[in-house]
Amino acid sequence: MEFREKEAIYLQIAAYVGEQITLDKWPVEEKIPSVRDLAVELQVNPNTVVRAYEFLQNRFVISNKRGIGFFVETDAKKKIREYNKERFLSQDLPEFFKSIYLLDIDIDNIATLYRQYVGDNYRSK
């Protein structure tokens, strides 16, 4: 995983976990990788993964069953989408609008490229 400079690593790890859940790679009510295993996989300090897992626990995305591990909550996908949507609309979208305005890119062109991207990378909805 390549980390971006402008965002805390634990938030990027939390986003990675959310993506795995959203894409059904880590199913609802199933155990997710341990702190240690994910730290090794992502090549980060285990304390950083602990912080990401705490962040997700506080948002009721995952839960800790003491002695067993962390598990995906039943409505985790809904919670992830709500958080990501709020974050995108308040932080990323204004920056996107600024860029397309400054670059004088037509919104219809963006829509066409978006549909092509979804068709090429995700199953159709």
From TrEMBL:
Pfam families the record matches: GntR
Keyword check for DNA-binding: yes
Keywords associated with the record: DNA-binding, Transcription, Transcription regulation
One Gene Ontology MF term: DNA-binding transcription factor activity
Keyword Protein biosynthesis assigned: no
CDD domains documented for this protein: WHTH_GntR
Cited InterPro entries: Tscrpt_reg_HTH_GntR (IPR000524), WH-like_DNA-bd_sf (IPR036388), WH_DNA-bd_sf (IPR036390)
Residue span, HTH gntR-type domain: 7-75
Coiled coil: none
PANTHER family reported for this sequence: GNTR-FAMILY TRANSCRIPTIONAL REGULATOR (PTHR38445:SF10), HTH-TYPE TRANSCRIPTIONAL REPRESSOR YTRA (PTHR38445)
Name of the featured protein: GntR family transcriptional regulator
Species in which this protein is naturally found: Pedobacter frigoris
